[in-house]
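A further point concerns the way the authors explain their paired sequence and structure data. An entry of this sort, consisting of the sequence and the corresponding backbone structure tokens, reads as follows:
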Amino acid sequence: MKIRVRDNPSYRMHQIELRMFTSKTRRHALEYAFEMACSNIKYGRGATKEVGFDLKNLGAKRVFLVTDPVLSKLPPVIKAREALEAAGVEYHFYDQTRVEPTDKSFKHAIEACKSYAPDAILAVGGGSSMDTAKAANLYYCHPEADFFDFVNAPIGKAKPVLKELLPLVCVTTTAGTGSEVTGITIFDHTEIGAKTGIGSRMLKPTLGIIDPDHLQHAPKNVRAYCGFDVLCHALESYTAIPFDSRPLPKSPEYRPTYQGSNPISDVWSLHALQICRDSFEKSVLEDNIDCQANMHLASAFAGIGFGNAGVHLCHGMSYPISGNIKNTKNQYSPDKLVPGVYGDHRPIVPHGLSVCITAPAVFETCAESNPEIQKRSLNAAAVLTGNDDLRNAKLSDSGRIISDVMRGYMNNLSIPNGLNGLGYDSSDVDKLIKGTLPQRRVLDLAPIDVNEESVGRLLESSMKNY
């Protein structure tokens, strides 16, 4: 009688050993692939007038329109509503988005979305409106989910989003977040006093509309803070760990949205830095309309870069900086950022400001990590200054050079002098460390070892930048 090979005891033992070896190897294996995902993009002055056509073309009949109370009265939203009405698309108008949204404001929008039962979603606004729309879309399509099911670990369960969501169109009104092209949504978790978020390719908008006409409604300080968000998005993604140095996920569906630097993201990030060099300061200081339009594109380009490569320490530390407000003078309340428009007097630290305030220390320290990051730091400094000679500078000088470049931009655009300028001092470091360390989704992409000691040093170094 013949014994089938698979029934042979030695063969079965070999297969068991092979599975054990494969499982053990996989736990220690490194990633071998990266994915590139972003939204479709429509760019052009006046492109908002086509949003009714765009949604109708997507088969939409009932649209949940998300914006904030101020924008609801301004031309970007007025034009979007006119476009919907001209196309004969029914919509529910939700204008209760909170500037710097929280878990509570997200839940309010989610319930409103569920009550209306739309077949598509439209966001008109900055990152706050677009991120709120993404959250509403996600939880409307997952009515059985607990809010923290999809929130990044270790704060949430970080379950993968496997179900396709409703069509989402985002009309961006700021040149900063890049949320119109990413699968990321960020919120303040009120219980821990820090930001966190949800990342999934399923969250990315179906279409991002970039209409530079909308930037004229943003004050100079808002344009400055948004521009630093663009700059840090691009520079952090360019200096993140390589995608193939991350651990291999247990399954492709667990491959993170933030994958590490890669050859495609590098192209988008570097081009965004080049636009920042040519247009950032002019878009703010000179009210140059063409430069503002360029920064709108830079925001999307950096969004494509970091939306796939990820960000790291500037953003990781920004979350508790914006979540633990110390500025008793309240100079950064929404009402003072946009005088006479917002009636909201609560203190905030604008996102782009909280991100860039640690940038000189972060990029100087990261440049000391290894020769590849040193080379990238010099290359970025050359792009941001237009000085090609910097590429040939000593690698050992790369940290000082890139940090000085960042300080130059910050000083020219009147960014407060470090964390002290935001009301923080050394007594706050422990609390800021505590809010930073859970942000592993971004911290693990940093090219340095991120722990209590290293974060504390970066925060202390950022108390004063000039």
Residues 1-26 have pLDDT under 50 and may be disordered. Residues 40-215 form a domain with the Rossmann fold fold (CATH 3.40.50.1970).
